[in-house]
DNA sequence: TCAGCAATTTGATTTGGAACAATCGGATTT
DNA sequence: AAATCCGATTGTTCCAAATCAAATTGCTGA
């Protein structure tokens, strides 16, 4: 069922001039008929495609986390985007991918062939919505890379992992029966985080240790971080 | 005549799965009929819209140069995109602009109302093409901000101003009667360049002086730079 | 032509993060 | 349980770019 895969942006409706056609999202039959629903699975660190590969299909992340990155000839790497459930990848302006796509965790993908996209207005609209969302995230990340300190970068990164941030009661104790949204899974090594934030592993590690020492976070099993003081971290992002 | 305004991406055709519908670009009558062709003019440093303004129309840069930027609460600024002839702006995923748009030079814009975009497949395709192009440029700029040195940043910036770069004969003398593509107009102050490259004005100035001393460029009237040795600059971008 | 001002350049100093170098800690293997 | 491995952490030193501070250049208008 394709409607289950087109989930992430359905809450983004409004009166913007160019935002896709949300009414169609409620009736996905047109696409279901044509799309055999091909799925693809990846293990952590599998590469889906390399920069320079021929761009022939689009993918939607159904489960798991992926990253897009670019390499400089001398080996420096910059992770340019993190893709989560509902995000699409595989876009290309030219014939070839401008980034490498690699799985950070186990990943399940929905695959769309080129022709199904260009012939389906619904797909076009959904793809457009994804592009706009990615563009805004890239703008925000550009500010991080161009103007923020290491502490601000790591704090911003952590805040980005907290679901429904911006709500009130950010200091209160955990509600009974609620999932613990204050414990976030990094699903990335220190090296991957560093390459995403434009820092070195050592700097990322030092900032995390500093936040730990200040009592703002607790590190559990290195890949899982409990944010004891969300407001405190939020104040450190440079955005408040 | 709208065809004159939809120029920039016509050379980007290919077999990519999702790249707009270039055949339509040859027959722009559909759009001409509906679009009264409203134009808008800006002087240098005029703001077209502010971050947070309601997003209600799209714009195409017909002439001149603009920038998109974001501000942090303490006044730090990051220029996230430079828009030139053929580029579109005004996209929004939500109802509000995520960036401020300001003219760097005198600018002439073509204005498109929200409904004309969502009802015209041709516009949708063109907009899509623009989004994909901007996305790739943002990826490249992300690498610059995250991983490049000041010298590499400024060199990359200069190379981005050279039209048809990558051609042969980059060292040869000027052809008779050819426009001098080796003299580029910055159309930006040092502060604007610094805010684009994630540096300070002093660092930008020092790198430019260094390139001057090394005989790679000549600065004319501060806003115009003659690149005496394109290959030399190209080698400094970190990409070769 | 000459103030006056703003933008740029240049100089001196500081500093945040990189680079280099151990060490630690948890997981896996034997 | 000991050995190995690999990612993460911590310590030290170094350096590129930021910051602070003049000096210079170029532009504008009287």
UniProtKB/TrEMBL annotation, chains A, B:
One Pfam family hit: cNMP_binding
Transmembrane feature ranges: none
CDD domains for this protein: CAP_ED, HTH_CRP
InterPro entries according to UniProt: cNMP-bd_dom, cNMP-bd_dom_sf, Env_Response_Regulators, HTH_CRP, RmlC-like_jellyroll, Tscrpt_reg_HTH_Crp-type_CS, WH-like_DNA-bd_sf, WH_DNA-bd_sf
Domain HTH crp-type: 148-231
Annotated keywords: DNA-binding, Transcription, Transcription regulation
Domain of life: Bacteria
SUPFAM superfamilies for the chain: cAMP-binding domain-like, Winged helix' DNA-binding domain
Domain Cyclic nucleotide-binding, chain residue ranges per copy: 46-90
UniProt xrefs under PANTHER family: CRP FAMILY TRANSCRIPTIONAL REGULATORY PROTEIN, FUMARATE AND NITRATE REDUCTION REGULATORY PROTEIN
Record's protein name: Nitrogen fixation regulation protein FixK
UniProt gene name: fixK
